[in-house]
Amino acid sequence: MTVLVTGASGMLGRAVAEHLLGQGEAVRCFQRRPSGVGAEDVLGSIEDDDAVEEAVRGCTAVIHLAAKVSFTGHAAEFDRINVQGTDRLLRAAERAGATDVVHVSSPSVAHGGTSLVGAPAGRADPDHARGHYARTKASAELLALDRCSASFRVAAVRPHIVWGPGDTQLVERVLDRARSKRLPLLDGGTALIDTTYVDNAASAIVACLRRMDQARGLSLVVTNGEPRPVAELLAGICRAGGVTPPEWSVPGAVARGAGAVIERAWLALGRSDEPPMTRFLAEQLSTAHWFDQRRTRAVLDWQPTISVDEGFERLGTYYRR
Amino acid sequence: MVALPGIDPSWSMYVDVPSTSGADAPGTRHRWHYLDNGVGTDGSAVKGTLLCVHGNPTWSYLWRTYLAAGLAEGWRVIAVDQLDMGYSARTGVFRRLAHRIADLEDFVGAVGLSGPLVTVGHDWGGVISLGYAHRNRQGLAGVVLTNTAIHQDPTRRIPAPLRLALAPGVHDVGTRATTAFLDVTLALARPALERDVRKAFRAPYRRVADRQGIANFVSDIPADPSHPSYTALTGTAEGIRSIDVPVLMMWGPHDPIFSDPYLEDLAQRLPHADIHRFERASHLVQEDADTASTAMEWLEARSVGNTAPGLRPAVDDRTGGTATNAAADENALSGGAATGDATPYRPLGRRIHELATGPDGETTAVAEMKPTGPPRVLSWRELDDDVAAVAAGLASLGYGPGSRVSLLVPPGVDLTVLIYACLRIGAIIVVADAGLGTRGLSRAVRGSAPDVVIGIERALIAARAFDWPGRRISAAPLSAVRRRALRVDASLNDLRAARPADATPERSDADADADADADAAILFTSGSTGPAKGVVYTNRQLSAMRDAVESTLGLGPGSSLVAGFAPFALLGPALGATSVTPDMDVTAPRTLTAQALADAAAAISATVVFASPAALRNVLATSSDLSADGRTALGRIALMLSAGAPIPVPLLEAVQELVPAAALHTPYGMTESLLVADIDLDGIRRAAAAADTGLDGAGNGVCVGLPVHGARVALSPLGAFEGHSTSDCDRDGGPDGGLRGGSRDDSRDGEAVGPPTTTPGVTGEILVDAPHVKDRYFRLWKTQQDSAHTRPWHRTGDVGHFDADGRLWVEGRLGHVVTSPAGIVTPVGLEQALETLDAVRLAAVVGVGPAGTQAVVAVVETASAGRRPQLASAPLAAAARAIARQRGVEVSAVIEVAALPVDIRHNAKIDRARVAAWSARFLSGGRAGSL
Questions:
Q1: CB contact under 8 A, A303 and B854
Q2: Which residue ranges form the domains of chain A, and what is each CATH number?
């Protein structure tokens, strides 16, 4: 019995693969670059039929994390990787005789720019998602869950803001900007935000594979269940990284407007790096985002094991090394 | 009829009805529209029929929530569109009140009823439905009225808006030619109607011709006896006096037309009626409040309609409380009901007369300190005499048993005399605290519908400005000009002078005959959360209050007390104790100075002091100004009580230094039961030590001690939240079980649902049973029902638990309980723990987010906080989280503020609801404004 993990070169994918190995599972990783996990690696693109066929061969279960994750970029690329790639993978997996799929998604598939206070997961909604990433992840989740049947079980897990040592998406960017004094707090950073320490996200995803009887067909948001003001989270990351936390505040409305402008300018200039501010990011940093975790925990029979504060300590240890 | 929000299209029906009305030619038929939820029309079981009659200018749409509620509860609900109104026919004939009553009879004859009938009316539909009920007693099982009127007091003008609508030149333009009358009526809704609901109300009145009925209805208002409909109205108004079926009146007191005086008029015609005033609601009370559920609950409680034998709920005559969930934990609660039957009933004022006629008749009964000059003093004989004189004066003005007398007089000799005079003639005293503020006080006075307001000049000015009901009597003499300006009929001295010459002191013992179980007092709550509620006590219950104070504190003849805290202070004469009121502004307890307290104590050689925490704070703050004599006077105090709000131990210890000989008591109670439990400073210390040594249940809250003599206390456990139980999925075994769609029923989280228990450590709503618990809330039927549904207990709305030694610990208000995913968090214990941090002066623990998954937030008052609230510094947040974690609580955010909102009266109770709402805004991003 082999579990295929796609996107294992990323922080979360690697953590999932290692978690499975730790439990004695046979693991195969599938991504473009070597994962470094120490399991069987199949290298290739999710846009390549043959590579995908090869990856799923002999697998009984699939954990699908590979995706284009970015705040900016062109729509077609998101569609090819996130929507068509997921479709290709799941069709191939079913043909190959796999029975269980954990599709890793994002809470943003169900929510626009409004503040979320103890929110339920909600249904994925590509029509109202903000930005190409959320839109294509929403479509991918819908098509994945649509394939769910008694013999081919699919569940969607949506970890919210995953962070930890080696994270380039959030931690490195926060530290970079704080170092160069380009990290403002929006509206004083008072919005409550739920995040997920990477080990917790990984253990929840693996727990889902064990609980497919209960989880199949469901979308489950996963977080630490410890909402904190965004200013405290940023400060915690900064302190762990040895950087002075941000103190200056910008009105959220200004940042959201500026983000929208910068985003368009970046596209027009054809730049491929990440812009300093986008509308999506500004919304993320200035409105509450936290979730009702009761159902997730009951369905997965799972608890996070690393608290936010312990996560900061681990991050600090990582950076002091 | 097109599809409208809140209405099932299948409810909409038409029927052709032959008219027997004198308005129509013989043989005329009219097409009626009505809504019918159809319950029982297929032969299934039905409790009866609610016949709902709208007023002007609404239509059956007003009753849509009743049709839905009836469907769920097994009641057929028929809501009719009156002729010329809604979607019923436009008859082209002016239909007067008498015609409309006959019309309704025609309609009912045509559609038929299922089972017993309950008439339900609003506005002029109330009059018409009453007319029908009066003439059709057969099968009549109940009457429900909402904002209506049956009688126009000929001495009072009809309400200004109606005068305007009737004015020549305005009437036709306002009611028919334009939609002005309709629009103004719909705009009365509080909060404003949703756009689609407003559209639905307007739908049948789009064209000028549609609105002739509206114009005619307004013209048919019998403003005076010459009006053609006056006779029909008067006939109904008098006729309904003999209605003996259960009656429910639900009222929106903000109605500019059918205001409280009309409710009062109906209450006098139907004295057995149950009344609920939805304090924030206006004319369209059905839109502003959930009257349909209340009506259904009332029908059940009053056993109206067909009920299966054996299922009929037991109903208490006075309150309509159903005897459910009363099965107490028998082992823990054995000891019988708290009936207090060991103490025979003695009228509250009996002692005054006994002492006046005894050997101590010339000793001081009451004293009142003045800013300058000697105190005003009455001996027992003088007090008894004055009470008799004022009682006779009130009687001579026509007041007697059942009269409601609103007393807006500060504590002192006059208030004492007035209270005992009212009780002596069987009148009901209405006492609201000026600490409510003018608006809150005005709401309270209006709601209590007083027959007379007796007040100081400031109160009379408010009475005039806000047009309070009732005659006005001035406590102090007023010039003729002031009297006219304030519409004052008499002064307190006039009452004294009005005493008939033949009245002798012997006759003044009339209170011996006062009905022990008649209402004696309406005391208003402090209103620290929401509008103040009127709390009704009978004579027997007031006397039981005195007995509880007497036996708990050992006060009686020979005692002498300083009355710095009103509710207890008024009991002085009843206890036979000498009492003195200190010189202070009682509306602001924090104005009591140490010297004023000492002067009052010295004036009567007092050994007892009643005060509130806010007053004691100021006493301490001013204690350095105390004279040597003052210190001596305070040194004689043997007993000091602090009541009304929790008092921190350090403050109590500081007070102890000022009154070194005094036992310091901090009794626990509320307006609904002034004395529930009692503890003294030593007891508090012992309780704290018990908490430190880990006694089962000790800790997590404010220890208020043991229940007082005659009172039983129990707890109704809070609904437990199954945090991360997996049993649901294991049992359901698949994704089609109860977990799908997040449909878990979490509605019971944080609600007190368990059977009463006294098991140590079990947190629940505090329940009290004592002979001195309130009788009921005044004109708040639903509130009373909620507070008394676990017979015989009064539900206090406070949350707490017992320890293994039987001490009660209070953990906060039920409405302030935080329901986090890890379990229930009560605020007080954690707040006290946070207040042990040096930086924290005061703390509030609140929840934000949906019930069951709330984030716990600590809002702390610090000396260093800036004007704008901000997230606490990292060290403070870490320290606060560490303290919470020791108690098993995860705190999401710690916010620093310069000042937390506290109540006006005690300056101590944190308005946690406001803090929670503000925190939710602050923590969701964007502008939160100031706290």
A1: no
A2: 2-160+197-223+291-305 (3.40.50.720)
